[in-house]
Amino acid sequence: MKTGIFTLSFFLTVLTALPSSAAAGADSIFRTEPYLQNPVGGGITIMWQTWVPSYSWVEYGTDTTDLSSWQMARTIVDGQVICNGTRNKIRIEGLKPGRTYYYRVYSQEILLYQAYKKEFGETAVSPVHSFTLPAENGSGFTAIVFNDLHKQSETLQALYSHIRDIPYDFVVFNGDCIDDPADHDEATAFLSELNSTVGAADVPVFYLRGNHEIRNAYSIGLRALFDYVGDKTYGAFNWGDTRIVMLDCGEDKPDSTWVYYGLNDFSGLRKEQVGFLEKELSSEEFRNASRRVLIHHIPIYAMDDAYNPCLELWGPLLDGAPFDICLNAHTHRHAFHPAGSAGNTFPVVVGGGYSMEGATVMVLEKKGEDMTLKVLDTAGNTILDLKL
C-alpha cells in the first residue's frame, strides 16, 4: 500500500512538472496569411487563423521608419480580450480615408489558460503589409470580380494570370467559390488560396454568398471566416463616390424542397431585404453617388426558371432604380443583357462557370466620370468590353 501511494504521489509530481502542452515554434503558429475585410466606416477588419490557441493583436501605423509610433489593436468584448482560439478577427477603427496604413499581425501561443494561471509560448509575427482606404470623394477605382469558381484551383489561377498586373483596389467573390464546405479544414484551404492569390493581405476582399455556400455541414460555420458589411450577408458601401449594393438571393429552390429538411427560411431573408432596399434606394448615400453598382449571385432577369422569388419581391423596387450595372453569376454561362432587353432597366452582366472553357473574370473600372466593365475568359480573351 505504501509503495502504491508513493508511486502515485511521484507520478503526480512529475506530471505537474511537465509543460502544459507541446509548444509550437514561431514558424508553426500561423495557419493563414492575414486578409482584409469590411473596409467601411473609417475602419477595416483584419482576419487570420493559427494552428494553435493564441493571443493575437495587430500593430499599425502610417510610417514604416518609426515603428514606435504604431498603435496596437485587439478584440475586446465586455472587458475581455478575445483569445485562446485559432480564428482571429480584429477591427481597426478611426482611420482616415485615402491614407495608406501599414500593419503586421502577431499571435502568441497560449499553452495554458486557467482561472489563476496562464502560460504562453512563442510569438509569430507576419511581414509588414499595407492597405489604403478609399478617399471620401475619390472618383476612381478598379475592382476584380470572380464567381462560381467551385474550388477549382486551375480555373482560379488561369483567370488571375490575365489580371495580376492590373492595379486593383478591391476584389469581390460573387458566390459559389467556396462551395458545399464539408468542414473547417476544407473551407480554410480554398479560402487561403483565394486570399493569397489576389493578395488579400494588402487588398480588401468581399465575399458574397452564393447558393452553394449555403450547403453542406460547414455552411453555417463559414460565416465565422468573414466580416460582412453591417454584419449581414447583404449590404451597401461607398468606394469613393460610387455606391455598391450587394444582395443575397439565398437558395435557388423553394424552402419546402425536401433536400433542405425544413432547415431553410430564405423567404424570410428575401423579405427582410425588401426593407433594406427601400431604405437604401432612398438614402442620401445612394442618391448622391455618381455611380451605382448592384451585385448579387443569382440573376433575376432573363432567367428561365419558374422559381424566381427575388424578381417578385425586389423587381418593383429595382424597376427604374438608377443602377449603372448589375453583376450576376450562378448560370455558369456568360451573358450580357442590355437595359430593357429582359425587363431590366439597367444593363446586366452574368459571369461564366467554373470550367476552363466557360469561366470568366470581370474588371470594373471607374476613372473620373467614366466607368467600364471588361469580361475576360481563361485564355485572356476580352469577351465583353462595355462602356457604362
In words, what does this structure look like?
With 388 residues, the chain is of the alpha+beta class. The chain contains 6 helices and 21 strands. Strands 1, 2, 3, 6, 7, 8 and 9 form a 7-stranded antiparallel beta sheet that branches. It is globular.
Beta-strand segment tally:
21
SSE order, one letter for each helix or strand: HEEEEEEEEEEHEHEEEHHEHEEEEEE
Helical segment count: 6
The overall average pLDDT, rounded, is 93
Topology:
Elements: H1 2-17, E1 35-37, E2 44-61, E3 71-73, E4 76-77, E5 80-81, E6 85-92, E7 100-113, E8 118-125, E9 129-132, E10 141-146, H2 153-160, E11 170-174, H3 184-198, E12 205-208, E13 235-239, E14 242-246, H4 266-281, H5 284-288, E15 291-295, H6 309-318, E16 325-328, E17 335-337, E18 348-350, E19 360-367, E20 370-377, E21 382-387
Parallel strand pairs: 10-11, 11-12, 14-15, 15-16, 16-18
Antiparallel strand pairs: 1-2, 2-3, 2-6, 2-7, 4-5, 7-8, 7-9, 10-19, 13-14, 17-18, 19-20, 20-21
Helix pairs in contact: 2-3, 4-6
Provide a short characterization of the protein structure.
The protein has 388 residues and is an alpha+beta fold. The chain has six helices and 21 strands.
